[in-house]
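User: What would this chain look like folded?
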Amino acid sequence: MSKTSPFTDCLHALRTAAATFPDIRKGKNKHYTVRDAALGAFAVFFTQSPSFLAYQRDMTKRQGQSNAHTLFGLSEIPCDNQMRTLLDPVPPALLDPVFDHGFSTLAETQQLSAFRSWQKRLLVVLDGTQYFTSQSISCPQCSRQTHRNGTTTYSHRMLTPVIVAPHQNKVIPLPPEFIVPQDGHAKQDCENAAAKRWLRQYATTYRTYNMTILGDDLYATQPICEVLIEERLPFILVCKPDSHATLYAALAQRTLGKDLHQVTHTVHSTSGVTHATYRYASQLPLRASADTLYVNWCELTLTDAAGTQLYHNAFMTQATLTAKTVAPIVQAGRTRWKVENENNNTLKTQGYHLEHNFGHGTQHLAALLATFNLLAFLFHTLLDLLDAQYHQLRRTLVSRKTFFDDLRALTRYLCFPSWEHLLTFMQQGLHGHPPLNSS
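Assistant: Here's the prediction, encoded as structure tokens.
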């Protein structure tokens, strides 16, 4: 990793990617660059301030410069409409190198070790989420749902893969895959098709890091499993009876103690006694066909001392299940819920406003802005892991809202020569002493 600060290092990767963005304008009227539009859009999401650029334009008039220039490296600040026009033709995949840079930085600094769990694996959850919906605004990239009353709902969805770990309250976003109409396909795109595209595109990059794929019951199908096996990616997927009739019919024929096994662990804690009962079986057919895959199955039932059920779920995997491995495999499978709590919920309700229409456009704008939002989330995660000053500030300003309220207020009224100066100012104001060395 370079000796520059984590923020400067990651921002350099973003600037490099933005330099590859297409500029389809003709003629000489190119006062604002696509690069400035990209950095400006990112700054809005990073500061969680939709009015950030407007404040910085005002500051530039008063002081001759602004935080848009000093912190984010803009040369000129385009207005919102100019920014949307410049960015609409940009495919979001051009930002993939920035995600790759963030991941590589975590690998090089040994930060990924804290995210490894069962068999020292990195757990990657596949999950889809909606980030735009309307009955009046649409573009050629929209998914469409026609209702019985004749109305149509237009929406945008994306696959948001993240790295999770059982005892981590952070997740690491990976490049998204967008659920959009595909050239040459009559059927509307869907989450499973997007998952196959993502796996085929990124498996080569990530399999060397000893990754296991997690997912809910939607992904526990033979076509998805075939892609996972082809790409040499182990999996632990939720497996429900309603959608796996063949598997559960075969399971019903198993004999407990012979080809169906059970183990119970009792846990004593301050909240009482909990009994964790695991059942597991091997080589069960995934579907009723001659070419069926055979998978291993396990379930966990948690009960309290009175026998009341507290939790129940089941999973399918190709991992070997034994009395010793079933508990850590189930724990890994259960970790998939973190994609909802630590990723999607944070992006939608904790200031990133993922579902807000920042600009829809006619080509890629909605998807590109959603990708900038994901990158902003990734940058803050990287800073919390790699920057001692930032980490200390976030521990002091425990509330995410308080931290971003302060960030917005400070950058509205004061111009800081660098990100490091901003952190130093905040830390000295809170603690009244020189900051930690952030190198």
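Residues 123 and 329 are 11 Å apart (CA to CA). If you want, I can go into more detail on any region.
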